[in-house]
C-alpha cells in the first residue's frame, strides 16, 4: 500500500495509488469548481499533491488551462525571477553494460563508437568549455564497472576543478551517473559535487523492466531508491526526471511528483531540480518505435503544472528541445538550460556524432543562446554561489521560499553575466548585456546589496573575478 515515508520503492511509488489518481483526474477533468479551487490553492505557492496536480494536467477547458499557464508564469517569476542558469553536459565515457532499449549506449549496440576520455582529454574538453564561458558542468557516463568505476569519476572531478585557463574555471560539477551505494555517494560529496542527478526514465515498474531487460539498471527498486541513498550519503541536492515518451506521460507525471513528495517527507527537502527530457533520435534509436510521444501542447501543460505543484524546485530543459519550445517553457517554469551542448564523448574538441547519446535540436553557440536570452529579457546566469557558500538542500529551499532569492541570486547572476560579457561575448552581445545589467541592478530590492553588486561589477571591469553573495 502507498506510504510516502517508506524506504521501499514500491511503497512510495505505488502503482495502485497512481492508477486511482489517474482515474480521479479523468473523472474530474471538467469539474470547474474543483479545478478553480486547485488553481486558487496553487496561487498560495505552497504546492499541490500529486492527485491535485493530475487533475490540473487533465483539465480540458481552455479558459482554465489558460489560467494554469498564467499562474505558472507568476510563480516562476516570484521564486526565480528572470534568471536562467546556464550549464553544459560533459560526456566522459559511453561504455555501458546495460540493455536499455531507448539508449544507443546499450551493451548490444555494435555500431556506436565506444570511447572513454583520458584525464588529458578531459582537460582539453574543459578548456574548450571554459573558452565558451561555461562555469557549470553536468558529468555524464555510461554504466560500466571496469571502464567507468567510481574512482575514474572522482579523478575526473578533481581534474576538472583544478583546470584554470585564462579567466576560465569550472566552479560547479553536477554528476549524472548510475545509481550507486551510500559509500560512493559519500565519496562524491567529499569530491565537492553540486547536484546528484538521476533520471528515473519511467516510474511504471512493468514498463521499466521491459525497457531495461539486462544490466544493473534493470533493478527497478535499486534505481528508484537511489535518491534516498544519495541523501543518506550527505548529498542534499538531488535532481529527478523522467524520459517522457517511454510510457504514458500521465503515469510518469504522477510518479515524478510522488517521488518529490517522498523526498520532502523523508528528508525535509524535495528535489533541487526536475528535468523534463523527451525521447530523441540517436544512433540505433528511432523515437517512432515508442508510441507514447508527448506533443508540444501537452508538454507545455506538463511543465506548467509541475511549476504549480513544486514551486520552489528548479526545472531544467536541454538542447533536446528546439529553440521554439525552449522559449515557450522558459516563461512557465524552466529555470536552467544547457547551451552549445555536445552529447558525444570528446565532442567539444572534435565533434564526433558517432559517439553521441542523442541528437541535439538547439545547436546554437553559447553566445547565440546568451544573446537570445538577453533579447527576451532574461538574465543568463553562470552563478554557482549557493553550492560554494553551503546553501544547499533545506538551507537553499528556505532562502527560496522566503523570497530572499532576489537579494542573493539576482546580484550573483548579474555579476557572473558581467564576467561572461567581459571575457567571452561578441561585441553585440556585450552591448546588450551591459544595458540589461544596468536595468536589473536598479531592481534589486535591498539597497545595500544593490550598492555592493554595483561596486563588484565595476571591479570586474577592472579585471577582478569571482565575487558572490
What does this 3D model show about the protein?
It is a single chain. The protein is an alpha/beta fold and 469 residues long. The protein contains 20 helices and eleven strands. The strands form two sheets. Strands 1, 2, 5, 6, 7, 8, 9, 10 and 11 form a nine-stranded parallel β-sheet that branches. A two-stranded antiparallel ribbon has the order 3-4. β3 and β4 form a beta hairpin. α13 runs parallel beside α14. The protein is globular. The mean pLDDT is 94.
In short, what is this structure?
This protein is an alpha/beta fold and 469 residues long. The protein contains 20 helices and eleven strands. The strands form two sheets. Strands 1, 2, 5, 6, 7, 8, 9, 10 and 11 form a nine-stranded parallel beta sheet that branches.
